[in-house]
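Q: What would this complex look like in 3D?
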Amino acid sequence: MNKFDVLQLLLYAAALVTLAKPLGCYVAGALQDNSALQCRVFGPAERLIYRLCGISPAAQMNWKTYRGALLAFNALGLAAVFLLQLFQHKLPLNPNGNGPVEFWLAFNTAVSFMTNTNWQAYAGETTLSYLTQMLGLGAQNFLSAATGMAVMAAMARGLTGRKTAGVGNFWGDVTRVTIRVLLPLSFVTAFLLVGQGVVQTFKPNAVITTSEGARQAIPLGPAASQVAIKQLGTNGGGFFNANSAHPLENPTPLSNFIEMLALLLLPGACVFAYGAMTGGRAHARVLFAVMFSVWAAGLAGALYSEYSAAAVTGQAALMEGKETRFGVTNSVLWAVSTTAASNGSVNAMHSSLSPAAGGIALFNIMLGEVIFGGAGSGMYGMALFVLLTVFLCGLMVGRTPEYLGKKVEKREIQMAIIGILAPGAVILTGAALSCAVPAALASLSAGGPHGFSELLYAWSSAAGNNGSAFAGLNANAPFYTIGLALAMLAGRFAVILPCLAIAGSMAVKTPSPPSAGTLPTDTLTFGVLLAAIILIVGGLTFFPALMLGPGAEQLLMYGGTAF
Amino acid sequence: MTTNSFWSRELAGKAALQAFVKLNPVTLSRSPVMFVTLIGAAMVTLDVLAGLPRVSGFEAQIALWLWVTVLFANFAEAMAEGHGKARAESLRRSRVEIMARRLDGGAEKKVPASCLRKGDAVVCSAGDLIPGDGEVIEGIASVDESAITGESAPVIRESGGDRSAVTGGTKVLSDRIVVRITAEPGKSFVDRMIALIENANRQRTPNEIALSLVLSALTLLFLLAVSSLKLFADYGAAAAGQDLSGLVTVPVLVSLLVCLIPTTIGGLLSAIGIAGMDRLVQRNVIAKSGRAVEAAGDIDVLMLDKTGTITLGNRMASAFVPAPGVSERELAEAAQLASLADETPEGRSIVVLAKTRFDLRARELHPHEARFIPFSANTQFSGVELLNAGREPVRRILKGSVAAIKAECAGRFPPELEAAQAEIANSGGTPLAVIDNGRALGIVQLKDIVKGGIKERFAQLRKMGIKTVMITGDNPLTAAAIAAEAGVDDFMAQATPESKLARIRAEQAAGRLVAMTGDGTNDAPALAQADVAVTMNTGTQAAREAGNMVDLDSNPTKLIEIVETGKQLLMTRGSLTTFSIANDVSKYFAIIPALFCSLYAAGGHAGPLAALNIMRLHSPQSAILSAVIFNALVIISLIPLALRGVKYVAVDAQALLRRNMLIYGLGGILAPFAGIKLLDVIITAAGLVR
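A: Here is my prediction, written as structure tokens for the whole assembly.
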């Protein structure tokens, strides 16, 4: 690493920390609908939507109604993307003449985009029409992110409600988040990206003659608009197969910086939005600090591994699978950020990272996507860990635990523990099945611990709704298209549903004022404990698996064996 | 019960036997963690038996220690239950043997205690067991209450005071008392205590249930982690072209599982709950439910009656303020004379004060020398008339409320005394005016005496985060003065039953948990409304029924100890959970390298994961066995802590958390590294495994 690498890292961290808070306040304003300026600017468009859809956004829903609306909305999104893929050859905007998508692959992709995972078992440029990309995937990129933020808002309302059953209005939440937050941000980002050379066109692929005289099809399409939201909405599904390593999706170091910043910006802002909505601003700062610290520690470890591995293997730098225009530091920074956030876009192949760096990326996902995590989903996932921490701390100080002034009781703990442990259970089950089913093992491209990492990563990515691939695993096989689709559904809704249940049960409780016996949740002590519990839960669940995969590989590499 | 008897041979022996009885899977299934351990032990045993006649010493030892783990957990529960049972047993014995001497119209008649009805009067002399709960109506005696309280020092019980209540089954050590029975047979405290102690293990509090849920979920997760590990290992073996079947066996995987699931807390959880209730009983408090005890750990506001709680029950004379031209001694002498026949504590305190200040001996007044004027609610004064030889009154000394005395001295009440009485009233005292034949001599100041050490107790409560509110019928000025002196946070002056109830409701509406101590019938509505209501054993029946705890000592500040017990209960659970989970780190470092040290090994070197053997344990077998043995030994060595409870110190939550996390969290991570290493050395030296 040279001083420019360090400078870039610092610049990135500074930009993230500086922008997250004001954006968080803005997001809170949108969710609470209490900003006069926002209402003036976006009100007309929203009112049009409300009128067209017959929505009364101020009508409070109880948690069950909210849950019903959310499930119906997501089921509709799933069906839309699924059908678009099956019938894209009969629909317009298919200049490259892509045929219908295979049934299970279409199902996998539909689930993937509906759950904000954006796991891609297909190559975008050779499989999907522009219409499918825009109307199907692009729309879900917005709506799945909006769904996540809506759940976060419902939870924030439930935690602070004063003996009311209402947790907000799902339709209103989704509309406001999309219109006020996601669309304007995407527009600005897409504009910047186009300026850097990201393509945005309805033209078919360009066919050119290379300097060697060969003819090559250069894939084109409306990429910039989709890249913007894929980064902002922690979706990560690339327009092209190579994702943000593709020169037309991420052409320059500046576009790379913008995309990386967009990747963590909204999840970070959601923490502050949550703080503003619950009145726990100091608490939100602690949560942000916890996320930032774990992220930074992972980054440091990954960078150390990457640079020290280069020394072991006798190379100047580990450049396999990386783009020369980004270099090692930017590739590792992206890899750590995209796995910490449940984004899943890549600008380098994670399979080619040094084993420990790949392991850190994997561990980031295994932690439950709460280190920044997805838009909204990172925050509500974190809230579950906070509840668990509060419960344990409450026991340690001899007081029934309280969070934001409300007692945390059996039901909340039950739901929190389901939300925390379910994704891990899905990962272990899936990975174990893959080890036992010959058809699953046939998809691996490498042997030894590296092959194990490939399948472990696939299941983690799906259950964590991350969507990034370790590469190397052929995921377009029925075992994986179906299995991973189920994992994505479980990983998404086994967290969302408990969160809404908690919102519902907390909403009707009476808040009590803090006393000297109450454990504050806005202190360093609490932050340290929260981080420790996140790491210990993840560590205890996955220590053996991680050791058999990246751990063994890294140790073997030090011994001179590579996979 | 003293700590020595914790490990009494008899109790331990019985508990050891019970440990085997409790192996019954039906009973064990209530604790999922121990149930999984039991299944694991059975699986390994079957595995060993299947290998017969060739017996693997290693696997047999693992089977043995897994059974020991379950037995230790059962033993812990049995010990806790044993304590309660022993107490209940001795209580029950004491009850059936008692013969009572019932007073039937002045004559004593021997009847069995079970025949006594509410309202019966019985006589108890030195050496007698008191036949039932009741109230002393005559006499004073020292009573040994150790049968119910475990406190061997005798206590004084006397008629007509705060300490008039006696409990059935306790023993009179000296003197003779007459007791009026206040409980029907089968409803006495002893009966309640027996029920409480014996049911302790059946009542699980919401908090305990929530924790059990977390433990069960973790158990399930580890079950998944270990079973998936088997398949991961198969993959690794196939990928490396190696055979790991020698080490990745059922006994080893079961060992890993049992080491990972929170057996420490799972094994001790019920013992902690039972012991918590037992501790409360040791502190002479009877709770109607375990839930109330835990709620006590959460209270935000404590409402206390002033009289008898914050102040000594009675006002005491504290100063003489003479009128102009009167000496203090003259006033003291007159006040003493006026109080000679006054048997109220106030009257006695005046006599005592005069004696201590001016060495005035109380004179013996014979009926022919004086006639006493008793206090009446109408006159608001009392006093004495001294008689001459002809039995004519020559001197009339009165003391009483200022207003009443003023009326007696017909407008000749000095303005200086007026000022003095106002000052006394403002400072929380009560002024009593004294006149001698219509001449105002001065004022005696009566003061509420705040109990010694009470201020410190309130400071302690404040540190726990509990706000204290004093309830009194006094006027606001008086109340404020006493509140300031006692160091309470707030006070309620001129309180009525309605206003008490309203105050509690208001606090609860603001989300606070309210505790209240009280003893009077007029406290009953408020007690019923409070979240935690501690009634004094000496209190009225209505109050006792309204509360959810009864304090046998009738010591209102006992609430501090109840709070501590409630907090201790949660803290012990939390600390052992943390300790249990933290232990897992070291167990992974013992067992994972043991399982996979040869995986991907090449060229005669150890495999890459051997590097995880940071404890440098001797061999895979010794590592696994050490971890299993450590896991079992932790349970037995933590039984005393589980029964005693984690120490509670009254500091703020943050500091308490840091302290406990350091001890049980960090300690829980580090301690087993040392423990497992030590066991490994011993096992290797003893040649127990390869």
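A: To summarize the key features: The first helix of chain A runs from residue 3 to 32. DSSP finds 18 helices and four strands in chain A.
Q: Very helpful, thank you.
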